[in-house]
Amino acid sequence: MSISAAPQKPTQTPTEISYPHGLKEFPAPGETIEISPGIHWLRMPLPYSLDHINLYLIEDGDGWVIVDTGVNTSKVRDLWEQHFAGVMGGRPVTKVIVTHLHPDHVGLAGWLCRRFGVELWMSRTDYLMCCNLVLDTGTEAPEEGVRFYREAGFNDAQIETYRRRFGGFGRDVSTMPQSFRRLVGGQQLEIGGRTWQTVEGRGHAPEHMCLWCPDAAVLLSGDQVLPRISSNISVHPTEPQADPLSDWLESCARIRDQLPADTLVGPAHNEPFYGLKVRLQDLIDEHETDLGKLEELIGEPKRANEVFGALFRRPITDDLVHMATGESLAHLNCLIERGLARRFMGDDGVARYERVSHAQATAAE
């Protein structure tokens, strides 16, 4: 069943976030809401603390394009079966498009592609990284990863948790297709008689592909921009000195300047909303504020796990420490890249981060 509810478009440039379908209103299991003619919003459950993901169906002539897929669980597959027989009316899938590599988005891509005999459309970097991460399933945690988290301040119990959870990525991902169609930023796709354009984001994922339809004034944003939560921006053991936060901030500013203010955003989490430019600027400002607080905090040397208070409003419990450490390192590495901080090793084998004074920064130049 699909509920058609054309959103009320803002009559003026939005100055705040608004939810045309209501706040905390979403499709029931097995149902969809048509957020714009031919664009359907459905929701699938997730077995995580963030308990849902929004997926989208785009009418494509006699078939459908699927945008993002949900995780590989029997519950989600059963819900897809309801959609195949329900709103999709037995019509075939013509493409499976995945915004980025995380399991809640790519998890059932292989299953869907094989079921309908269609290609997976995805950015090259995210496709290859996803395939690589799936290969970790069932293997032992590498020593490089153990060293990475030791240097970040993990204790023995936290290291053991990392070892135990390593390789879990592939458990939520069905067997990936062995070929794909590459998406790049600025690419145009014809879907249902309208032109859609890919809009690239970086930082949350290496090559995150949003989908924008100028004619419909709709952006399917994946995780690049969400209305009430900020996407996790983390450093991982595979690239310890990476600076994903700078990539993400640049992406947010570019998308803010590129897309119209009256764009309806279909995010991967929370509800469709207006106020894209407002939200992107808020996200940029929030992270810049956090960077300022972090720079102040490391006036005295701090370990990565000693700076959580500058970045997170809630207490970081053991189940969140992995995520919080990755995000803290992303902010610390951003300060290093800006010449505002330095990293050095303590006698205990744990890295410290310290603010660089203006005089030190000038001397380094």
From TrEMBL:
It comes from the Bacteria. Coiled coil: none annotated. InterPro entries: B_lactamase-like_C (IPR048933), Metallo-B-lactamas (IPR001279), RibonucZ/Hydroxyglut_hydro (IPR036866), Sec-metab_biosynth-thioest (IPR050662), WH-like_DNA-bd_sf (IPR036388). Pfam families: B_lactamase-like_C, Lactamase_B. Residues 1-21 are annotated as: Disordered. Residues 52-269 form the Metallo-beta-lactamase domain. Residues 1-16 have a biased composition (Polar residues). This is Metallo-beta-lactamase family protein. It comes from Candidatus Phaeomarinibacter ectocarpi.
